[in-house]
Design brief:
This protein has 191 residues and is an alpha/beta fold. Helices cover 45% and strands 17% of the residues. β2, α2 and β3 form a beta-alpha-beta unit. The relative contact order is 0.16.
């Protein structure tokens, strides 16, 4: 079982209540399965929802937040462990180091940045951890269409594209992540 699951998600709740429900379900499921939530340390939006859901079900929650966001009073001070770091670069590096796998939920530019950094890290060979999209309400469908287009145009290799796990159901997603073994991955850069 992959113990520490890093979740990237929005600092807002979005316009569809289904995103909130998925964040609650994922937080609850992580806690009930004895997994630790690693996330951006915020108390707002889907970040706050997932952290609170995990905590409400006895889960461990580690938040990594930059000093600037602590000063803006967005830090969640009720989680298991809150680590304050210098900047966003250090935040992403720390979350990546702690994680056994990554899930991106609905979110904005920060979520996209975090997703692509860890997925690119897998492509280059910095790690072999699973990278997944929780595709609630088909949120990621437009991005998946673009990625498929990039494959067709020769900018993303098909073997690498297939490493991205996409599921709409939390339980299935975590099971697939647990079973993930990178294979037949033709990397741009050899180890």
């Amino acid at each position: 079982m992959r113990k520490n699951i890093c979740v990237f998600c929005g600092a807002s709740e979005g316009n569809n209540p289904a995103y909130i429900e998925q964040a609650k379900l994922l937080g609850q499921t992580l806690a009930k399965q004895g997994r630790c939530l690693v996330y951006g340390g915020g108390n707002m939006g889907l970040m706050g929802v997932i952290a609170n859901a995990a905590l409400a079900h006895g889960g461990e929650v580690i938040g990594i937040i930059p000093e600037r966001l602590v000063k803006a009073e967005t830090a969640h001070k009720g989680i298991t462990r809150l680590e304050v770091v210098k900047d966003m670069h250090e935040r992403k590096a720390k979350m990546s180091a702690l994680a056994d796998g990554f899930i991106a939920m609905a979110g904005g530019t920060g979520t996209l940045e975090e997703l692509f950094e860890v997925w690119t890290g897998a492509q280059i060979g910095y790690h072999e951890k699973p990278v997944a999209l929780l595709n609630s309400e088909q949120f990621w469908d437009p991005l998946l269409a673009f990625l498929s287009h990039s494959v067709q145009e020769g900018f993303i290799r098909e073997s690498f594209y297939r490493t991205l796990i996409v599921q709409q159901e939390v339980g299935n997603l975590l099971q697939i992540m647990d079973e993930y073994i990178p294979k037949d991955l033709e990397r741009w850069i050899k180890k």
